[in-house]
Amino acid sequence: MKEVVLCGLFILFLDAVLWWALWAGLLLLRFSGCGGLAGVWAFGAVKWIILHVFTSLLTDGKPQVELRRLVALLCLLTPVLESGRMVMAPPSGTYTGPPPDFSMLLLGLMAASLACVVWEKGLCGTGKMTKEKSKQDARRLLMRVLKYFRPDSLYLIAAFSFLILGVICDTYIPLYQGRVIDMLRGQAFQINCYYAVGQLALISFGSALFSGMRGGIFMCALCRLNKRLKHLLFYSLLQQEVQFFEENNPGRLSSRLHSDVDRMGRTVALNANVLVRSTVKTCLMLHVMLGLSWNLTVLTCLEMPLLALIQNKYITLSKELKDKIQDCHAKNKDLAFQAVSGIRTVHSYRGQENELRRYNEALDQLCKINRQSRIYSTVFCLFRRMVSVGIKILMLLQARSLILSGHLSIGSLVSFFLYQKPMSVNLREIMYAYGDTASTVGVISKVFSYLDRTPKCKKAGVLAPEKLQGRVVFQNVTFTYPSEDKPALKSVSIELKPGKMTALVGPSGSGKTSCVSLLQRLYEPQEGQILLDGEPLHHYEHKYLHQKVALVSQNPVLFSGTLKYNIEYGLKDCSYEKLRETAKRANADEYISELENGYHTDIGECGKKLSEGQMQCISIIRALVRDPQVIILDEATSKLDVEAQHTVLQEVLSCGRTVLVVAHQLKTVEKADHIICIEKGEVVEEGTHQELMAKRGRYYRLKEELFSKKS
Ligand SMILES: Nc1ncnc2c1ncn2[C@@H]1O[C@H](COP(=O)(O)OP(=O)(O)OP(=O)(O)O)[C@@H](O)[C@H]1O
């Protein structure tokens, strides 16, 4: 690095020497200039060759890319600037080339070095590869967001057209204001004055109208984009396997779905808006400013790379913090949601203090990160102001020398400063929009990572036989939860026969629920397979399987809505008659009909308006209405009265169904045709109740441990 800096300094020195040589030569040969624009370009080309050879000599023929860029910049800077000046503000007399001016030479060398430093350090310097890669990623992500706007192309075309029209009107308002002021001074006829006022009114009206239209249409497009993205994201989330929801907590997912998608669309759309508006304005203003003084314009433009350098650093630092803040917000939401939704448990265990402490800790964490973010923003603001003030001082010094040399009038200087402020604002807006978009990249990439995620489960097959016996066979099934090391089930082989009730018995954590989850295809076993009528479960069509294999759990999950909605949940063609018929069989039609709105009664959030027994009853009807062939009861009748329990079990066992009961009560176990004892993930004993009791083995002892108190 030191070597490059040293070579760079030598190159700058040689460049200055070459300029002095040129000016000395012109003076000695009594030439008034270096031959116009062609001469400037020719000198640039000659200088390039000399500096290139010099750089090669300094670096043993292998000049670093940074040095080559510096040489190119030094040689092109003056010809490009002079050409620009000729186009924007052609001189009144014959153009002879840049005058021998030491301050301008110094300014040129400084500008070139600064641009190189900004480029190398800020834009493609240290950690080039990673930065370049992350930039490419960011670009790819932004392009992808823009692609989602495709269905709204017409809206966007209209919005951007109104935007450009609005900007043009905005830019011309001061011009017409000036004209009206001139008219007011009585320099024109009355009619001309009215005409100018009319023009000003028209252009102001146009500006307001176009700006309003632009804002409205942008908002409209944004709403449509948000709707589309939220739909897609929700769809993608619903496809994920159960493990995904265990790894990503619901608060975070819901935050991604709502605030992050909103932020993503808003940032991209609004920043595109700002970028286009400010760029058009900047170009128009630059045109006028170059006409007034190109030297001062160069100084004004110097502010931008410097600010970009500081902004770049700020973005890198704040991006990480913004991600952390998002996560903290999601965590806070999650904690509050958990406490409020589980308020009964919180009250009954007097957990208020505990919940408050946890919430407070999360708030503290958020506060800490926010404080850090504020510090960064203050330091950034300070540096930005310092750069602006420094540039202003330089401009005043330069303006003084220009006025003294007669190259600039006081009036032009005032006009220049009047343009300079909005110009800086525009440049700042452009950089802010860039920075803001860059800092949203983290959010965008997270949303897209969920959108692109492929569920880690086997694809469902197409089997959907009309007749299903319901014979279930676990063949040497070994299963470990993805987050665990120890297997929950070890080489389990069991059979569930049609028309029979099988009870799974075992101490807590023995693997009963794991068997049920595998049968429901919520997870996939690592070894062995589960067969339904001789076919592996994943060969069956997803919807068919979940219709034919139904689970009724001890704590059923019901959704807000009516009883009808909850019973026919997920079914497309369930008639009202069938629904009532099933409810009758489950002994529930009578009490449902007595409700004010019958089956259309709203059951409140998550069925809070129902008793626990009623909730169990509804979930049993929900399972039965699907005509399942295999039914899993995870202590599903524990909250029902004895008569209702009997009716439900009778109903469940009818039609030759295969019934698997995860038993917690002795009376349920005793009713089973077959009992499977499971312990530490292994089947330890199986048979009928009588057989196992006579054997006096594991089941006998387990029965004593598990059911003696309950029964
Ligand atoms: N989602 C999960 N992620 C990781 N490990 C789990 C998960 N669910 C259960 N386990 C572990 O798997 C083992 C078997 O649990 P399982 O829930 O199948 O037992 P169980 O017999 O149904 O218990 P209980 O009668 O208390 O419901 C236990 O060691 C448990 O800690």
Automatic annotation (TrEMBL):
It is a multi-pass membrane protein. This is Antigen peptide transporter 2. It comes from Betta splendens (Siamese fighting fish). PANTHER family: ATP-DEPENDENT PERMEASE MDL1, MITOCHONDRIAL, TRANSPORTER 2, ATP BINDING CASSETTE SUBFAMILY B. The keyword Cell wall biogenesis/degradation does not apply. It is found in: Endomembrane system. Belongs to the ABC transporter superfamily. ABCB family. MHC peptide exporter (TC 3.A.1.209) subfamily. Keywords: ATP-binding, Membrane, Nucleotide-binding, Peptide transport, Protein transport, Translocase, Transmembrane, Transmembrane helix, Transport. It comes from the Eukaryota. InterPro entries: AAA+_ATPase, ABC1_TM_dom, ABC1_TM_sf, ABC_transporter-like_ATP-bd, P-loop_NTPase, Type_1_exporter. Its main location: membrane. GO terms for cellular component: endomembrane system; membrane. The chain crosses the membrane at residues 40-58, 70-90, 102-119, 153-175, 195-222. One of its GO terms (molecular function) is ATP binding. PROSITE patterns: ABC_TM1F, ABC_TRANSPORTER_2. Pfam families: ABC_membrane, ABC_tran. Gene3D superfamilies: ABC transporter type 1, transmembrane domain, P-loop containing nucleotide triphosphate hydrolases.
